[in-house]
Amino acid sequence: MQSRLTIKDIARLSGVGKSTVSRVLNNESGVSARTRERVEAVMQQEGFSPSRSARAMRGQSDKVVAIIVTRLDSLSENLAVQTMLPSLYEQGYDPIMMESQFDPELVEEHLGMLKRRNIDGVILFGFTGINEKMLTSWQSTLVLMARDAKGFASVCYDDEGAITSLMAKLYSQGHRHISFLGVPHSDVTTGLRRHNAYLAFCKEHQLTPNVALPGLAMKQGYEHVAEVLLPETTALVCATDTLALGASKYLQEHQSNALQLASVGNTPLMKFLHPEIITVDPGYAEAGRQAVLQLIGQVTQDRELRQIVIPCTLQ
Ligand SMILES: O=P(O)(O)OC[C@H]1O[C@H](O[C@H]2O[C@H](CO)[C@@H](O)[C@H](O)[C@H]2O)[C@H](O)[C@@H](O)[C@@H]1O
User: Which domains are delineated in the chain?
Assistant: First the structure.
């Protein structure tokens, strides 16, 4: 059986470059009528139709939704995306994946490109620096993940509840010297809200707080955990599984295995490597499902812009 022809093959058979074929497919200017006719004739002769994903990238598919994650290597975002994709396929939508790297300018660029390509809707993993103004033209066709914004649909996690339930569990086990490893306050949800929930619990139960806020990276957990280890510390709450994985590597290397760790995430990697760590599941998978339901509702039925908070579950 002959394998599927690509744009490169069409370019070769027509005697033009790939970009010219691409322009013809996109109906863009900059191609003479003669060349356009030649390329179209070759495509017709060869029965060429661009792949589904290639058409989706150009906004030529009937139904296309973009998912803009902050990091392609984020364990938590991947869990949400894993439930988004089958829900989108089920509804006949082609997804396009993009990455923002926590850069608001990159988000603006992506959104501009998606607008020009007439994409049906966007699921955007939000972060500090994203503001309502840059999202205005998407108000009815966008769902924000992990952040809320006035006038926009969103799916958020219960950041305070997640930390409070971990602290309550450790407290019920008799721990009275519980340290906290988290994320700087410039990150409002994973950083500020989770840290504040830890401080509030300490205040209410007259515990002495002991904190370091290095960041989201596993290496930061590894490098900074020593700062919160006092001789009396018996437990450590980490704002994320990733931080806890870094901290746990350090603790193993320094034979500090007596410390009880707890973290927010309940990711498969954590459950596999460290089933002894207490985790709380913020509901990433459910958040992914809810985001797609919300977005498709907005796009097809004018659904109201809801602000959904997924309840967390102590494991
Ligand atoms: O280490 P990860 O598996 O990536 O999990 C860390 C946290 O990631 C998410 O928060 C971060 O990204 C959000 C966008 O998805 C952003 O709004 C937030 O400010 C970042 O901290 C996730 O929402 C958290 O639950 C994870 O703990």
Answer: 7-57 (1.10.260.40), 63-157+284-314 (3.40.50.2300), 159-281 (3.40.50.2300)
